[in-house]
Amino acid sequence: MKIKGYIIKFIKIVAFAGIFVWIYSNVSSVMTPFSRFNYFLAGFYEEEEKTLDAVYIGSSNCHTYWNSLFAWEQYGINVYPYTANSLPFSSAEYVIKEVRNRQPNAVFVVNINTLGDEEITMSQSHNLLDHMPLTFEKLALTKFLCEFGEYPRDDHWEYYFPIIQYHSRWGDITESDFYNVTDGYKGACNFDIYKKKSTNIFNGFKQTEEVGVLSEKMEKALKSLLEYCKSEDIEIVFVTVPQSRPDLEDVKKYNRVNEMVSEYGFRVLDLIGNIEDTEMDLKVDFYNSKHANIHGSIKYTQFLSEYLIENFKFEDKRGKAEYSDWDKAYNEYYKEFSPYVLDIELDSKYRDYSLEAPSEKDILTTANGTSVRLEWKSIEGATGYVIYKKSGKNGAWKKTGYSNQLIYEDKDVKEGKKYTYTIVPFYEKDGENYYGKHLYKGVNVTN
Amino acid sequence: MSYQTLEFILFSAIVLFFYYILGRRLQLVVLAIANMVFYIMAGPKYLPYLLATMLVTYLVGLFIGMIYNKCDKQLAECKDNSEKKALRAKAKSKAKKVLIIALLVAIGLLAVCKYTGFVTKNLNLLFAKFGIPQIEVFKMVLPLGISFYTFMAVSYVLDVYWKRYKAEKNFLLYAVYLSYFPHVVQGPIDRFNEFKEQIAGGVKISYENITYGAQLAIWGFFKKLVIADRIGILVSTILDNWETYDGVYIIVAFLVYSIQIYADFSGCIDIVSGISEMFGIKLRKNFNHPYFSRTMAEFWRRWHMSLQEWFKDYVYYPVSASNFTKKIKKFFKNRGLKRIEDIFSSCLPIIVVWLITGIWHGAAWMYVAWGMFHASLLIGGKLFENVLPKVSKVLHIDTENFGWYFWQMVRTYLLCCVGRVFFRAASLTNAIALFKKMITDTTFASLFNPDMTFGLDLKDINVALVSVLILLVVDILQEKMRLRETLAKQNLIFRWMLIFGALFFIIIFGNYGPGYDASNFIYEQF
Amino acid sequence: MEELKKMLEEKFPNIDFDAEKALVSGGVLDSLQVVEIIGEIEDMFDISVTMEYIQPDYFESVETMWDMIEELQ
Q1: For residue C57, which of C71, C73, C43 has the smallest C-alpha distance?
Q2: Which of A397, A420, B98, B504 is deepest in the core (most CB within 10 A)?
Q3: B382 touches chain C (CB under 8 A)
Q4: Which of A9, A23, A164 sits opposite B504 (nearest CB)?
């Protein structure tokens, strides 16, 4: 009889603990904030295991350059960006270990640009850790970040139990906190600033071949990563994405990384020094000095996709039934980006960026209620111009007509409505049209 | 290690695990190691002070025990009564000499660590008046819990001297008692024999101890994290900027502060008492719903009980029974001044006790003022204890009904709040300035100023109000019944709902983690 | 012991000293009153109540007080 008493007590204790853990994890996930910045990392776990060709690791300098849905649509490869804002480069090894739990055969692409960020703030660590599921790798990464960031001992707890940091949000909880759902865009960026903004970040060319020195902490982390990749036979590519020219000191550090990586026989792409390869234009393809916009991202994705396919022989999986969710995602995503992207942008073959876009001040618009008239200056090398038009708040760019006269009249207009036009120069060669640059924002005309 | 942290919970859990797993014989060893770890984490440089007091009082205890044993042996052989008396007196005076050494060391260390700064500062003020050069103010280290463990050590050695129990031979047991991590920082001030009773022979693991202890600790966390730390923000915001607030808000701040300090102190005591109960060692009760008291005398039997009881047993009675007091009483008696003798014999000890109580709380004049304030209330109560019932009779006031009881509770609370001004102010001059502000610069209307901010928004105030209400209800229930036992009789689902509710209420609404001011733990500085 | 009881009943007419057996632990007498009793006992019986005897156990009832007085004489 006494044994029965013990067994009952034991069951009670286990049940109590179990209920506590269950309630705790629910409360914790409700209180942890979930915003569009977390979609990339959280969305990774929605992918089926062993289905990704590659995983791209970086901070916001990854998901604003690499657009997974464009890569899918044009090349049939699925490369997912496992990113969080300000993800520190030094954590790459642990992140890779975590990712390999679900995608052991994936190729890895890692951005080097955040090499100089040795100070990992507490909110950066939270960005990375809060939406990782609980695994041993996560615990190892937590420990690593706390030590690397040199957080005071008392603060370590809030990474193992994020509720310590977030319970004070109790006054701000809204309905959406109960459903932590991503947008389903497979990591393709959907920020407004990414779609709409274009800034000139060109600031002169600084280049050096000199090899610099990394800090002891960073050198140790990088070496460990390279050793790990070598021992596990991981295929990995290191990239410096194009940004406005960095400090000479940073360039030297990138060179040191290139050197170390090459010693191990892994691939390195220095796209800051070789930005021409991507055909990205520092004057229009970025929304700030460290992030590309959607147009730059299209070019970057095209470049990197072709590089990856050539080097790793990824299969074209378009049309396969198991990947229909990617098609579905792309169709949903289309509504988001079509107001900002011309169809010809998504076709890399027939572009010639030596043709300049007609600049805004060179386009004259007149509207008289029944028609809108565009006049522009000639572009060197162009034999014809195709006009795109969009209207309404979220209207998509649509091809409206052609002209080789430097004038175009659009009669398909309603009075009082606002329209936006953009003009793309082209020339013909061997039976194909080669299109040049265009004004991303276009010109607005109110009829 | 602060008591209200996750670290402390994990530390206690680990110690608890080893305490029961390793068997009863090693329990003292486990506790000894735990106490050392806990104390060293606060600061290794404090350890020598604790060890000094511990060793000296232990050795003196043994020595006194030896003296008495020898005396008893001699008494057994002796037949003559007057010789017996002489032997006893000789033993006593010998023991007294050794006792004084222990008291000098223990209290001396306490005095030096705590009061050197205070004494030098005041001497310097005095010297400045007479042109004597200033003494350098020496920065003394204040070992963790010195005010508390010193009192416990003194209680032990005095109890042995007064033959309340035999000196303890087992040094480990005594060391564990003195350095016991639940009570070393801020009490309760336990007595050695009560401690020994519970742990000697080992503690058997009991489901009841663990669950009751855990419930008490959870209740303590609720009081500390949800109530005290939350309303403390309001109090600090107002009092740290008291010049900018209208007097009425300062009054509000002190009214709220009285709740804060109750929730804070009793909350932490509940945490450590609950944790200790899980070890099978029930600590002395330190709080018995003090704000339900009818008189100030009753209040001090319900607030920080272990301290008052210590003063009663080791200061009040000895002073009353001392030859000095007796001489003075005889002096008055012989002159037929019975009434004055009565007053003297009751008031002198009160004044002495409260002088020491005041200065024990802090090395500053405002604490002395606080002590004297309460002493005068108690003396007043004593002097008028015959007069007041007559007044109530004349005015036809019924002193037994609830209405009168309610008035008495309000009166007690308000008197405490007045005392707290001395306690919370930055200095005596600050306290006087605050009183001045409350009396002269108060406009009731500014309570209705919607722009006032106190560091707490409306949501926080709502949570605070609800929590204080819960506190009131639970305290009332505790007055009427043993709450944990009643709870144990309820259905499992109800109990578990209550416990999970409490746990997650604390987890969500508790003031901990980043973004909150690390609230001063009020009594820890002693 | 009768003198003792008479003195106590005179001083504290509200307390039933026959029935009460937990005068201190039950909170019937507070410390001030205990000191008064000690003073009276010392005068009445010409003894000196030392600290060893100022313990709650000795003041719980008339009987225990009388035990203490006998010990001290």
Answers
A1: C71
A2: A397
A3: yes
A4: A23
Residue of B492, B496, B512 lying closest to A164 (CB–CB): B512
Render pLDDT for B434-449 as a digit per residue (tens, 0 to 9).
888 888 877 777 777 7
Residue A447 · residue A372 · CB < 8 Å: yes
Q: Please report all neighbours of B, defined by 3+ CB atom pairs within 8 A.
A: A, C
Scanning B6-45 for CB atoms below 8 A from A yields: 6-7
**Which positions in chain B touch A163 (Cβ < 8 Å)?**
507
What residues contact residue A384 under an 8 Å CB cut-off, 6+ apart? A402, A403, A404, A425, A426, A427, A428, A433
Q: Would the CB atoms of B496 and A19 count as touching at under 8 Å?
A: yes
The CA-to-CA distance between both ends of chain C, in Å, stands at 13
- Please tell me the distance in Å from B495's CA to the nearest CA on chain A: 11
Whole-number Å distance between alpha carbons of B256 and B234: 8
Judge: A171–B496 Cβ closer than 8 Å, yes or no: no
Residue A205 scores a pLDDT above 80: no
Q: Which residue of A155, A170, A173, A177 is the best one to mutate when testing the B interface, meaning the one whose CB has the most B CBs within 10 A?
A: A170
- Cβ <8 Å between B6 and A24: no
Question: Residue A404 — very low, low, confident or very high, per pLDDT cuts 50/70/90?
Answer: confident
**Dihedral angle computed from the Cα positions of residues A411, A416, A418 and A419, in that order, rounded to the nearest 10 degrees:** 0
Count of C-beta atoms within a 10 Å radius of residue A276: 11
CB C28 within 8 A of CB C21: no
pLDDT of residue A117: 67
CATH (domain of C41):
1.10.1200.10
**CATH number for the domain running over A354-446:** 2.60.40.10
Structure token pair of residue A175:
């309905």
Residues of A in contact with B510 (CB under 8 A): 167
Contacts of A79 (CB under 8 A, 6+ apart): A52, A53, A54, A55, A56, A66, A68, A71, A109, A305, A308
Distance from CA of C51 to the nearest CA of B (A): 6
Q: What are phi and psi of A57, to 5 degrees?
A: -110, 130
Q: CB of B311 within 8 Å of any CB in chain A? A: no
**Residue whose C-alpha is closest to residue B20's, from B147, B261, B188, B202:** B202
- Identify the chains in contact with A, defined as 3+ C-beta pairs within 8 A: B
Is residue A411 within a helix (H) or strand (E), and if so which, with residue range? Answer: none
Q: According to CATH, what is the number of the domain A32-337? A: 3.40.50.1110
Q: Which residues contact A135 (CB under 8 A, 6 or more apart)?
A: A98, A101
Q: Which domain holds residue C26?
A: 2-12+21-72
CB B114 within 8 A of CB B363: yes
Q: How far apart are CA B415 and CA A141, in angstroms?
A: 56
Name chain B contacts of A152, Cβ cutoff 8 Å: none
Q: Is C51 within 8 Å of B318 when comparing Cβ atoms?
A: yes
| pLDDT for res B514 | 66
**Nearest partner of A203 among A290, A108, A110, A279, judged by Cα:** A290
Question: Would you call B513 and A20 a contact, using CB atoms and an 8 Å cutoff?
Answer: no
Does position A216 have pLDDT exceeding 90, yes or no?
no
Which of A347, A100, A68, A27 shows the shortest CA–CA distance to A184? A68
Measured distance CA(B523)–CA(C26) in Å, rounded: 29
